Every structure is written in structure tokens, then in C-alpha cells.
Amino acid sequence: MMSLGRVFIGGALLLLLGNAHAQDGKQIFTQGGSQPGAMPCVACHGPDGLGLPAAGFPRLAGLPAEYVRKQLVDFSSAARSNPVMEPLAKALTEAEIAAVSQAVAALPFPAPATAHRSEMPGNAMQKLALQGAWERQIPACVSCHGPAGAGVGDAFPPLAGQPAAYLSAQLAAWQNGTRHNDPNDLMGHIAKSLTAEEVQGVAHYFASLSPEVKP
Ligand code: HEC
Ligand code: HEC
């Protein structure tokens, strides 16, 4: 009887602790979630959430909270499949996802600098980014992702300041179908219309539009 009581009290305590933990997004960011497998985000996305460009780990700092929340839900449903983030997102509760999304959105990220012509990987990539390629039904990237790729609202994430290796990996993921989480297959259609050279070039172009993260 004694031990049953203890188990019950222990369980109630764990629930309470779990709740307190879930509400503290900053703590999930630095120390991980309440369930096994919910690793701290800082381990890969860096102490300031600026990502790890060499490894192709994206920045989270300053991304819209609703976009981050949607990605974590998409990882856990495998609409966006990734061997690292899929199990991790599944290990977070709904409340933890909401809290950590708010926390990373609140991390500061400097506004992207305007492009320096000398850093551009060629006018063809700038043209693709700024004007699209209408003969192939590819709209300008900036028409959805905003001027200088700074992002627009909750649905269109920033491209500027993300590592080039990350951006090109996402375009490749849409091309091979491992990422199929966007409304109306907008990005799927665009990515599949790009050549391998354009994927690399446009990724470097947007990655270079930031003083913080070099491609
Ligand atoms: C072990 C390394 C690792 C850890 C720990 C980790 N991530 Fe990630 N994360 C990645 C990688 C790698 C990607 C890129 C996945 C891809 O290519 O689709 C990523 C991508 C993301 C994205 C997509 C960003 C975008 O621009 O679409 C979000 C959101 C994210 N992680 C959130 C988190 C959160 C929140 C945590 C902590 C609870 C976390 N990650 C912990 C490695 C990690
Ligand atoms: C019609 C609107 C639209 C246009 C045009 C567009 N995108 Fe996107 N893009 C989106 C949406 C919406 C998402 C987010 C999908 C989701 O919810 O995961 C996205 C996401 C991305 C991502 C993933 C970012 C991340 O943080 O994971 C990359 C990379 C990307 N777009 C590159 C491009 C490039 C390069 C172009 C131009 C060749 C382009 N996009 C044009 C709508 C658009």
C-alpha cells in the first residue's frame, strides 16, 4: 500500500514537473525536453541558435514561431523526413513544441545585409532569385521569400543567412520527395524545375546575404 501511494505521488509529481518544463521554451532549448530522446537544441543549432554552417545545421534564431512549430509537427509526421529531427520531434510534447518554437523565434538575428555584387556567384543566380525563370514557370524566389530573402510572415521562411549546404539539401529533399510538407507543392514544383547547378548557385546566393553566417 505504502509503495503504491509513493508510485502515485511520484507520478503526479512527474506530471507537474513535466508541465513546468514544457512551459519553459528556453530551458528546452538549452537542456532538452522532458521525454527521452528530446535532446537540447543547442547541441546542434548552437548556443545562440545561429546554426552550424559547416555541418549544414540551420539557424533557428528569429525564425517565425509558427513556421518552427509547423516544421516540428511535419518532422514528427514524416511529411518532412530527416533521420535526426524526426525522432527528436516525436519526443517533444505538443506543449513543448509550442514553447520551444516561441523561444527560438525570440532569439535575436540581425537583419540580412543587402547583397554585395562582388560576392554574388554570378548574375544568372541573382536573376533566378530576383526574377525567376518564367519560360520554365519558376517564379522569383523573392516573390514569396521577401526582398533579400528575409522571409515573409509565418508561412515563407527566410533564406538569407541559412547555410548554403542546408538550403541546397532542402531543395534536394523536395526533388527526391523526402520533404513534401509545403502547401500545394509550391516548393516541390520549383525545386524539381531547378538544375543541379542552379540548386548550388541559388543556395550560395541566399546564404551570402548575411553578415552573420558565411556560406
Ligand atoms: C543532433 C542534432 C540536432 C539537435 C539536437 C536538434 N536539431 Fe533541429 N535540425 C538538425 C538538422 C540536421 C536539421 C536539418 C534537417 C533537414 O535537413 O531537414 C534540423 C532542422 C531543424 C528545423 C528546421 C528549420 C527550418 O528552417 O526549416 C527546426 C525547426 C529544428 N531543427 C528545431 C529543433 C529544435 C527545436 C531542437 C531542440 C528541441 C532541435 N532542432 C534539436 C539537427 C538537430
Ligand atoms: C510560391 C511561393 C514560393 C516561391 C516562389 C519560392 N518558395 Fe521557397 N518556400 C515556400 C514555402 C511556402 C516554404 C515553406 C514550406 C514549409 O512549410 O515547410 C518554402 C521553403 C523554402 C526552403 C526551405 C527553407 C527552410 O528553412 O527550410 C528553401 C531552401 C526554399 N524555399 C528555396 C526557394 C528558392 C531557391 C526559390 C526560388 C527558386 C523559392 N524557394 C521560391 C514558397 C515559395
From TrEMBL:
One of its GO terms (cellular component) is periplasmic space. Residues 1-22 form the signal peptide. Heme c 2 binds at residues 141, 144-145, 187. Keywords: Heme, Iron, Metal-binding, Signal. Heme c 1 binds at residues 41, 44-45, 85. InterPro entries: Cyt_c-like_dom (IPR009056), Cyt_c-like_dom_sf (IPR036909), Cytochrome_c4-like (IPR024167), Cytochrome_c_Oxidase_Subunit (IPR050597). Pfam families: Cytochrom_C. Gene3D superfamilies: Cytochrome c-like domain. Residues 20-108, 127-210 form the Cytochrome c domain. The keyword Iron applies. Binds 2 heme c groups covalently per subunit. GO terms for molecular function: electron transfer activity; heme binding; iron ion binding. PANTHER family: BLL4483 PROTEIN (PTHR33751:SF11), CBB3-TYPE CYTOCHROME C OXIDASE SUBUNIT FIXP (PTHR33751). This is Cytochrome c-552. It comes from Pseudomonas antarctica. The lineage of its organism: Bacteria, Pseudomonadati, Pseudomonadota, Gammaproteobacteria, Pseudomonadales.
